[in-house]
Amino acid sequence: MTRTGSGSATPVRAPRDIAAPGTGGVGDSPLRPDGTLKVKGEFAYSSDLWIDGMLWGATLRSPHPRAKIVSIDVSAALAHPGVSAVLTHEDVPGRKHFGLDHTWDQPVLAAGEVRHQGEPIALVAADHPETARRAMEKIRIEYEVLEPLTDARRAAFDPAYPQVQPRGNLARHQPVRVGDVEAAKARAEVVVSGEYRVGIQDQAFLGPESGLAVPAEDGGVDLYVATQWMHNDLKQIAPCLGLPEEKIRMTLSGVGGAFGGREDLSMQIHAAMLALHTGRPVKIVYNRYESFFGHVHRHPAEMRYEYGATKDGRILYADVEILLDGGAYTSATMNVVGNAASLGVGPYVIPNIKIDAYGVYTNNPPCGAMRGFGAVQACFAYESMMDKLAEACGLDPVTVRQVNAASQGSELATGQVIWAPLPMAEMLRQARELPMPPPLDASDIRNLPGGASQTTHGEGVRRGVGYGVGLKNICFSEGYDDYSTARVRLEVIGGEAVALVHTAAAEVGQGLVTLEAQIARTELGVERVVIHPADNQVGDAGSSSASRQSYMTGGAVMTACQAVREGVFALAAARLDRPLDTLGDLSLVGGKVVSESAGVLAAIEDVLGDAVIEETREYHHEPTTGMDPVTGRGDSHTQLALCVHRAVVDVDVELGLVKVVELAAVQDVGKILNRLSLEGQIHGGTAQGLGLAVMEEIVVSDGKVRNPSFTDYLIPTILDMPPMRLEILENADPRAPYGLRGAGEPPTLSSTPAIVAAIRDATGLALTRVPVRPEHITGSS
Amino acid sequence: MDFLRPTTWAEALAAKADRPEAVPIQGGTDVMVELNFDLHRPAALLDLNQVAELAEWTSEEDGRLRVGAGVPYVRLIAELGNRLPGLAQAARTVGSPQIRNRGTVGGNLGAASPAGDSHPPLLAGDAVIEVESAARGVRMIPAAEFYVGVKRSALEPDELIRAFRMSPATGPQYFSKVGTRNAMVIAVCSFAIALHPAERRVGTGIGSAAPTPRRALAAEEFLAAELDWDARLDPAVLARFGELAAEAASPIDDVRGTADYRRHAIGVMARRTLTWAWNEFRSGHFERRAG
Fold this sequence. Notes:
The complex is a heterodimer of chains A (781) and B (291). Chain A is α+β, with helices and mostly antiparallel strands and 781 residues long. Chain A has 3 domains: 46-146 and 215-285, Aldehyde oxidase/xanthine dehydrogenase, a/b hammerhead (Aldehyde Oxidoreductase, domain 3); 297-477 and 626-778, Aldehyde oxidase/xanthine dehydrogenase, molybdopterin binding domain (Aldehyde Oxidoreductase, domain 4, 2-Layer Sandwich), CATH 3.30.365.10; 483-619, Aldehyde Oxidoreductase, domain 4 (2-Layer Sandwich), CATH 3.30.365. Chain A is 25% helix and 26% strand. In chain A, strand 28 and strand 29 form a beta hairpin. In chain A, helix 11 packs antiparallel against helix 12 (424-433) and helix 13 (512-524) packs parallel to helix 14 (549-576). Chain A is globular, with a radius of gyration of 27 Å. By secondary structure, chain B is an alpha+beta fold. Chain B is built from 12 helices and 13 strands. Chain B has helices at residues 9-18, 31-36, 73-80, 85-92, 97-102, 105-111, 119-124, 143-146, 217-226, 235-248, 259-283, 285-290; strands at residues 2-4, 23-25, 44-47, 57-59, 65-68, 128-133, 137-142, 147-149, 152-153, 160-166, 173-178, 189-196, 201-207. In chain B, helix 3 (73-80) packs antiparallel against helix 4, helix 9 runs antiparallel to helix 10 (235-248) and helix 10 packs across helix 11. The longest helix of chain B has 25 residues, at 259-283. The chains are: A alpha+beta (781), B alpha+beta (291).
């Protein structure tokens, strides 16, 4: 990326008394370098990769959720004209299993048994994608089909339930224990309880899984992939290929959205296996149907909550059970359970707590990371409970939340003290006091529930208002050191100081490359910043997930720039032939080395001359601890971020259709680094929460997905997602770079319960399951 | 797969006679989805895009409109919206603007999906489908006889859909469709109504709530007997109409909705669309607009 914008009117290399700060730094909203290309359809995504002579790979997947593989016969497929290779589990060069974190239980290719519909069994490489698909159909597999194990409750609690895989059926049980719930039950004046369900949401990223593997002369492979975390991919790919990590060169390709769905591997090992086997480049692109089987989804949840309170709405205890169905393999289930447990009652101060969160294995679709990651499911339940409590106590929904709100200095359920500002009660007040949208204008059917389909001209439409609050952990938790690395190089090119920023961090559409350049401009006082393609020739940047890249890679770029800046200062002192400590407080502003006392000392270009200053830094957040396996106690989170939503909906109560009229959000982001990108994140997170509230669900019966297409897996359109009113607060987190808080996930938590609360307000119905379907509102069966 | 590209209607009929297994393709908004999902691998595609006359519509001497099978939805809305308002409303709910630029009523008829948006207004408006074969010439099939099973029509393998014929509206017409999204959504179920004041008759069409698109015949007969065309709408008549329309449906449970909900929604849409049509008719607004 190159930026040559205006800004400083001062001619380069002419020191003046005043150094004007350049534009495009932290706090500005420079345009994204990839923005115009994406809008015009010219951006090269990983599915656009092309190299002469490449083959096309295809993946044969199981049609059954659970079956024994009796035999595999690839001979007819191999004999198909145009086919270069057909591979099975026997051809996996190294380890046969991979997985996130330390649980390597997912077969590269199924051996002996398949445990979910769509599990990969065999690979084909051919000279044309259609040839590969046709050859794939000639692979003969004899299955012994078994009854799928799809009952998450039995998987968790019934020792007689058959095992899905050798690890047993319980991936993790994480309890949280605070105070004495049984004693508190005796004191409660008001008791409310509910059972809540969350359906399977899909990330529904628009760019399907795709990439290119090119065999290299050293016996290694060059991989061009769309992923969220190259280094963690590499840790899994290398052992499965039987190659040392240094023989695998990874380059990030254009990523068409991620939302957690690219944390797990998809086609990476498969394409590399085919490339190494054939000695030719191999490209794999999933189509939309295959994509629904090519990545993990959001865990569906069954949740049982009971709260006891005083008559005036102070919660005395929470008794909670959260059951998350992870499908056949572990993926991110361990950490999703950790989040659901530690954030199981959200941002409320409750003196007595009993939470049991379970993650189980079944033959249902595999589930793992998705925006909100365990906290989304819990948030729907605890916010529904707050509304129930409000009603039972005769309080309004805002007041009951304020009465129990956490704040700076409060303890979370885990005992972790909230060290940074958390003005939740005030944020709720702000949300309530925002102006209401105008009353329904029924003159345009697009304003009405049903929209363009003309189901009402205003008949049966009732308005409702609801609130939701969500608390999300930012960065990885439970003792994980998810550091990031940045290499920054400063030199004069063509007479102008240019900063080169090199990280392995994945730009997945969130705007990270824009932010990296902003930070370099602010820290180095230069205009021109070039972002090096993300690859594994620089250290680990961690995952583009957990809302963590602004914090972590932002922090790494900041510290690397600061190290480069120290080098510039030292060089300036040498050029001026003065001891550094006599120059006063130095800074780099507007292309100049500036002393607080003496003003502009020199242009950066004059200081640098032919010198090149390059520094690499790792950025680590403050260490966290694990959760106690019995009590859940621990300082397990790096940072916590809050969003408050107010939803206004119009509901056609006769047809059960919903139009979300307005979503207002109040979010504390610590520091606005780029308002345009930030607002995009809040809008997008809110829309994804809206999708979960009223339409997005992978429908499964007997372990099989019934709607693997965008015809039947619906995501919100512009007529579904309303205009938003945003109040963005900047109460700095003293531990974070620039005081920032991760912002991408919190709105995904709170918009879902706010919308459902508004539908309840309009209809008077209990609505304990998301997504809310029309028949839930009309009472049809 | 062979790709046949006739440039005239006669060539197209000859090609279809020669290759009855060839799948006709116009906008491709339906056929290409099936191909992309690998649901069908037809031996041949018969591309009708170069048969220019299919993209034309005319007013016939009998007063009816004859609309070529290749007229896209976007033109139907722009050029015939006043004369075929029910069909135009349905066309507005088809997919996205890009799909409406390419998709055609002819294609909707060819697919004969119970969820096709064109079908209910074609049924309510007494449309007749003009089909033709090289061997037997033209056949006129009333819409009510065109749909014979799930994604099956009365079309013979050597026949092609040439046009549909439909009278310009003589009374208010409405189309209503339930989907779980406010735009760009396939029908959970749909309902169309057309008032035919000269005949004192009300036409109906039900979509996506039976194996085929179908009329709510008992509901139509009930209105023909009970509706007082010179009075306000009797709430009891309205309620009974809704019940009969719902009873005319024979929906299933599927991933888009439940049978019970569909039956309920058909009843609600029947009542609402009749109310809108009646209010428009009684206000004289329709005559003023049509006149």
